[in-house]
Amino acid sequence: MATGTLFDTPQVAEAREYLTKRWQPPTGLGQTLEYSLIVSVDGTIERIIPLNKSARDFVDSAGMPEVGKPFVSANKRGQNVKIRVVLTPDGKVQTFPDE
User: Fold this and answer.
1) DSSP string of the chain?
2) Using one digit for the tens of pLDDT, what is the confidence trace for 84-98?
3) Following CA atoms 55, 23, 35, 42 in sequence, which dihedral angle do they give, to the nearest 10 degrees?
């Protein structure tokens, strides 16, 4: 029986939990920030790709883990995982698989 949402993988759920604890919208942020994260098989961050101008401008204050640092659990399928991250000015965090 499935738990979580239809689209959740353990890594997507863990990413949401991690970022929810760290996301503090910067003063003056008026736009949603969107990122595509590439996570290595071992669960470390491989790349953080800002998907809009605000995301580039605020990447340092978005609460993202450093590249090469542990982030989520290892992928049992033995593949890199792409996770879309949406951070809103009102403090909400959304994560879902990024195909």
Assistant:
1) ---S-TT--HHHHHHHHHHHHH--PPTT--S-EEEEEEE-TTSBEEEEEE-SHHHHHTGGGTTPPPTTSB-SPPPTTSS-EEEEEEE-TTS-EEEEE--
2) 999 999 999 999 998
3) 140
Cα 75 to its chain centre, rounded Å, is 15
Q: What is the pTM of this model?
A: 0.88
15 vs 19: CA distance, rounded Å: 6
pLDDT tens digits along 20-30: 999 999 888 99
